[in-house]
Amino acid sequence: MPTVRIPAPLRKLTGDQRVVQASGATLADLVTDLERRFPGIKGRIMSADGQVHSFVNIFVDDQDVRFLQGLATPLREEAEIAIIPAMAGGMDPVRPRR
Running DSSP on this structure, what letter comes out for residue 77? Predict the structure, then answer.
């Protein structure tokens, strides 16, 4: 069964679990299984039109699904999935002293 790494912002939906197992022949099937087990998680990953949010990256076996088959990406039984929310912020540019 595929293993899914859950990012900190979504762990309140998984009972604080960092890693869960989910079933599915494709990534879309896996997200459906996650939603069945952890209601509300799908809406944090996907928009109402069924697309992965632009601020969420999903990797299957260390490969970005945007460069595979998206939600139609087939999953191996031992697949490792990582859900990575985009990070914002950082430091202001360094300005030289006068």
Answer: T
Domain boundaries along the sequence of the chain: 3-85
How would you write 4-36 as a 3-class SS string? EECCHHHHHHHCCCCEEECCCCEHHHHHHHHHH
Q: For 33-69, b where at least 16 C-beta lie within 10 A, e where not — what string? A: bbbeebeebeebbbeeeeebeeebebbbeeeebeebe
CATH class held by domain 3-85: alpha beta
* Size (the chain), residues: 98
Cα-based distances in Å from 91 to 9, 56, 86, 94, 98: 22, 22, 16, 8, 20
Distance CA 98, CA 88 (A): 30
C-alpha to C-alpha distance for 94 and 34, rounded to whole angstroms? 43
- 49-74, pLDDT tens digit by residue? 999 999 999 999 999 999 999 999 99
pLDDT of residue 86: 84
